[in-house]
Write a structure and sequence with these properties.
The complex is a heterodimer. By secondary structure, chain A is α/β, with parallel strands linked by helices. Chain A has helices at residues 33-41, 84-94, 100-110, 126-138, 156-173, 184-190, 208-215, 220-229; strands at 2-4, 7-10, 22-26, 51-53, 56-58, 69-72, 144-148, 176-181, 193-198, 201-206. The two termini of chain B are 34 Å apart. The chains are: A alpha/beta, B mainly alpha.
Chain lengths: 238, 276
């Protein structure tokens, strides 16, 4: 649970992420998605309750596990004057990555950044910056990858490309991914489980196909609208 | 919370590699921006020239000040160690806020103590880039050799830099908790100490009640010690030792404040928003 002075942000939610799963946190603005992710990363202390990652209490025992996690969000930048290579070097060292130069080269190749490596991060387009953020998020080969609206403000082609990279990373590494998004196509394509949040509570939780079946709908967008427009309930926190 | 060996090791061991990574990050930034480099030496040079010429003028017209040769220039150079030391620390922190990078650091394995140590190291780097050329100019323009103070300069430097770090750490904590709305504090807080630490005049000039305040601030001991050295040609180790112990307390208070403000920032969600 997380309560700010201005009110309740997350209200008694409980869920477990199985290893290797891709879970989507779906919800409108102010639903509590970012707050939930911030608590999992140890960036925010819950008002009550516990958050555990690989058995470590967050944020109290975060240094036991932070090197196994990473995060990407379009709302957090990297130093603009530093080149991509410099930024990735700094973060690679912070995460204790071995063989850093070859790791950066491999990531640059995979994310189509090789020709841009020595360009200042501030001089990139938003699509290129997203790829750099993704490179930073993958630099330590995280076992848990947290993504906050990873394709927000990207054109459909770039967004599709980013989703393909995420799918590839998941299948290659068996990583556990938690993805907060407004984008139903993204959630439908990437996630094998969806948690729908509303006003800080979990409103529903299940595989996309099960949710479509439960609501008698054809798309997750329709499910989302059903949940968003129905009168408030006490939620079905598990 | 269980205080297991694993917990203690994961929380309290320091990684020099991570500290070096942060120093490298700030060095990349400095190297990429000539205005940032120029700024480091610009104000210290202007200050030194103004006070140096003023001292030259007064020295030609008053016997005491002629004897007290160099106190103004010495004071301005030592003051700049204090001011630039704190700014060097705080600006490194502000760079993270300005670039909206703080959350990236806070979710990385970088520990607060490593972050603080990197900013301490960078404050010395910035100080050296700014102050070494200025101190050499002071020799050229006014024949004032700061390095002629010898070991006393080392004592002055240690005490001033400790104070600057203590203030820098605390101010960084305040900005982290309250956002960039508190940024002005980083630029101005040290000027509150300027009249109280008696940079350009002896403590005896102050009214008695204010003298008590002045003697509670470590830099006062340094500036008094500098005047004793330049006017009476006497090094006062007693003043330096007193200042050092006060600095230890001040530094511990600054570091504790930073940790408490970091904890509050985690509670209030300040680490997620790096704007105002």
């Amino acid at each position: 649970m997380k309560i700010y002075q201005r009110g309740m942000a997350v209200d008694g939610i409980t869920f477990t992420l199985p290893v290797g799963s891709v879970t989507g946190l779906l919800g409108g603005n102010g639903a509590g998605k970012t707050t939930t992710i911030a608590m999992i990363m140890g960036l925010l202390t819950p008002t009550s309750g516990t958050v555990r990652v690989f058995g470590a209490d967050m944020p109290g025992q975060r240094y036991r596990v932070l090197h196994r996690m990473n995060f990407e969000s379009p709302y957090i930048d990297m130093p603009m004057r530093l080149t991509i290579r410099q930024n990735l070097t700094v973060f690679g060292r912070l995460y204790g990555v071995d063989g850093l130069a070859s790791r950066i080269a491999a990531l640059a190749d995979e994310l189509d950044l090789t020709d841009l490596l020595d360009r200042p991060t501030g001089k990139l387009s938003s699509g290129q910056r997203t790829r750099v953020s993704l490179a930073k998020a993958l630099i330590n080969r995280p076992e848990v990858l947290l993504l906050d609206e990873p394709t927000a403000s990207l054109d459909p082609d770039t967004a599709d490309w980013v989703r393909a990279r995420l799918q590839h990373y998941r299948s290659e590494r068996g990583a556990t991914i938690l993805l907060a998004s407004h984008n139903m196509n993204e959630v439908e394509r990437l996630c094998d489980r969806v948690i729908i949040m509303k006003k800080g509570r979990i409103e529903d939780d299940g595989a996309p196909a099960r949710l479509l079946e439960r609501y008698g709908r054809h798309t997750l967008e329709e499910v989302f609208l059903d949940v968003a427009r129905r009168p408030d309930t006490q939620g079905t926190a598990q | 919370m269980k205080l297991s060996i694993g917990y203690v090791i994961s929380h309290y061991t320091i990684s020099w590699r991570r500290i070096a990574a942060m120093i490298e990050r700030y060095w990349f930034l400095l190297r990429s921006s000539w205005p940032r480099l120029l700024e480091l030496a610009y104000w210290p040079t202007v200050q030194m020239l103004v006070w140096g010429f003023l001292q030259l003028y007064i020295g030609q017209n008053a016997g005491y000040f002629a004897r007290a040769g160099g106190t103004f220039i010495g004071a301005v150079l030592l003051w700049d160690i204090l001011l630039r030391g704190q700014l060097g620390f705080s600006i490194s922190f502000l760079e993270e806020m300005w670039s909206r990078n703080l959350a990236n650091l806070m979710i990385s394995p970088l520990k607060p103590i490593e972050f603080v140590l990197a900013m301490m190291a960078m404050s010395i780097v910035r100080l050296l880039i700014g102050m070494v050329p200025v101190s050499l100019l002071a020799i050229g323009f006014f024949g004032f050799n700061l390095y002629g103070m010898g070991l006393a300069l080392a004592a002055f430097f240690v005490n001033l830099i400790l104070t600057s770090w203590a203030v820098g750490i605390f101010v960084s904590g305040v900005v982290m908790r309250n956002g960039l709305g508190a940024e002005n504090l980083a630029w101005t807080v040290m000027f509150l100490l300027m009249p109280l630490t008696c940079v350009y005049y002896p403590v005896a000039v102050l009214p008695p009640w204010l003298q008590i305040v002045a003697w509670s601030l470590p830099p006062t001991y340094v500036f008094e010690g500098m005047r004793a050295l330049l006017i009476d040609h006497q090094f006062r180790p007693d003043l330096m030792i007193e200042a050092f112990f006060m600095n230890i307390i001040l530094f511990a208070a600054g570091a504790t404040g930073f940790m408490l403000l970091l904890r509050a920032a985690r509670r209030h969600g300040s680490l997620m928003q790096t704007g105002e």
